[in-house]
């Protein structure tokens, strides 16, 4: 959350808190447990993994803290140091989210040492980050934070090969920005700039977009500290363009927050409103409630600047309700303070004073002199407006004391930083002198002993070399013999298994294929001159020969099956050509003759024969439609797939507009309910349009007699599939008929009530099978609507 404008600590500290957001968010969203807090078993009987999985279903921060404390207790009782470090990491993140920075500080470096002891390098670096950030940085004790961040960077560099470049860069992204901020807070501006340059260099060398964007944010924030707003905007806007079209949500939040601060400071309210609104919309879209309400707080600040106090008050009430539920004292205190300023502008002085009293209750928890200073200034102003000069004077006195304390603290920090730097330099010099003296002594000792020990070392080295070589040769020979024996046994066993499988396969083919109408001729053993013995051979050479015979027979059988498949394909193509061209020509001629005969009859004959002509013509048209559907069904099975990402919402709307004009008896008042955004479908575009057209056409027919016809389309990812549903409130399908409705030319309804050939759903099923997906139908019965579910594999 962005603090009031005068609060520099919260403004610049927002970058640090958002850098900690991925680690803290992972703590809250780790796994899903099916049990509730009321039926959770005793922790003694629960595994560490189950405790970890149950964190996300815990009842609020208190519930999560109880589970974490249970895990810590169990880890300590069982002396499991790795799980102790793991649950300590989660407890530190929870304390930090609640603003309990002193509690994080009291945890100490024990969890870090435990993680390093167990070789959990990534966990150790995460603990470094939380301990330095929440335990010292947030309490504005920056020198210890610098030591911890520097130690973490050195540790990450030492274990970079084990971590891998990707993980190392991710940890550097979390460490470099707060380290540079610590240097700035302690007046070490050169080190601040050197740290940023090192971070930029690492980001550019890695070519990692996340690292480059984070470096842009850090450099932009640094330019802000030196009041170089034009440089800050240039760097930030350039960095934002590089990730604008990506899914890097947390980085986008950082850009939005920093750009909001810049434009608001420059009083460019329209631009500030734009980035606050982008932050709010993205938080809602990604379901990040914390960011949703921090951005809502910024929108309220814009409303205050535009003097729209009532709208600002509504937004602040929503923020207060959320952060009160989350028990986040820093945010609650700032909201009460800002509400006081809004109520003061609305002339509601007493209510404004009440909000100040509520905000003062969080001063000890927040521990921020900037916040206290702003709070006392507002309190003095309100007492003065209400005529209580005594209380106003007292608040003003406390305000002056806070201002003096703040200045004194800043001055003492600068002095302390200088003293620490001098002490460190003196200690480094002393250490260097001691090391130089020690090296000189060691060199003298080595030179004096080198000649006397040289020969001894050479002889000992030669002796050890020959002994080691001899032992190695003996061990290698023994290992080779064991490996050869084991390999021989395994090979013999695998040959037996493979021969048994080949016999079973050959036996199965011999039984099944001869009875099939399209069976191929199975090659006999005599063709290969390798008759199979009645008993399995024991000699490996004989087994290999017999296996070769089986393989040759399988290859020949596979060749014949392929040839048969090609013949079938050619036959199918010929059949499609006959259906598509040769059969349709006489069918069109018959339709033309029927039309001519109907025109040449007299009026009396036309009235008498009209039903017969109409029946004959509709039958011929139905036959033509069935031929078209057969061609379409064959094409759906034969066309080459060219899948690509498709935004389904636009395609479905376009098809619906075509059907509104193309369907002659469109039900009155029919509506299509379609969300504005649907997840992308990975499919062949023409075949996808054909599937949607068939399903929407069926839905229109099914709702022909429904009083208020509605068709709904929804989509959501589920596992490795995208699940797309088309539902209607039409005539429904009886349960016995649901299994056969995907068969070709099978209709489960009366053709008079539900016209069609019955090929549409068969085409849909074949297209989905081509995509390695599926289609299913669900209906509670006749008159209760129908839902068709398409499952497209995700790429």
Characterization of the model:
This protein has 795 residues and is mostly helical. Among the domains are: 20-139; 641-793, Histidine kinase-like ATPase, C-terminal domain (Heat Shock Protein 90, 2-Layer Sandwich), CATH 3.30.565. Helices cover 72% and strands 5% of the residues. The chain contains 29 helices and 7 strands. The chain has helices spanning 8-19, 21-28, 48-53, 60-77, 81-97, 101-107, 110-117, 121-137, 142-158, 160-163, 165-185, 189-206, 209-225, 229-243, 249-265, 269-286, 289-305, 309-326, 329-345, 349-360, 363-366, 369-385, 389-512, 540-582, 584-600, 603-638, 648-662, 685-702, 760-770, and strands spanning 644-646, 671-673, 681-683, 710-718, 721-728, 774-778, 786-793. A 5-stranded mixed sheet has the order 2-4-5-7-6, with helices on one face. Strand 6 and strand 7 (786-793) form a beta hairpin. The longest helix is centred in the middle third of the chain and has 124 residues, at 389-512. The protein is flat. Residues 1-41 and 526-534 have low confidence and may be disordered.
In short:
The protein is mostly helical and 795 residues long. Helices cover 72% and strands 5% of the residues.
Task: Please give the alpha-carbon distance between the first and last residues.
Answer: 38 Å
Q: What fraction of the residues are assigned to beta strands by DSSP?
A: under 5%
Can you say what the CATH homologous superfamily of the domain at 641-793 is? Histidine kinase-like ATPase, C-terminal domain
Query: Radius of gyration, Cα only, in angstroms?
Result: 39 Å
What do the pLDDT scores average to?
A: 77
Adjacency order of strands in the biggest sheet? 2-4-5-7-6
Runs in which pLDDT lies below 50 for 5 or more consecutive residues are 1-41, 526-534
Number of strands: 7
**CATH class value of the domain at 641-793:** Alpha Beta
Approximate helicity band: over 70%
Shape: flat
CATH architecture of the domain at 641-793: 2-Layer Sandwich
The structural class is mainly alpha
Main beta sheet, described? Answer: 5 strands, mixed
Here the CATH topology of the domain at 641-793 equals Heat Shock Protein 90
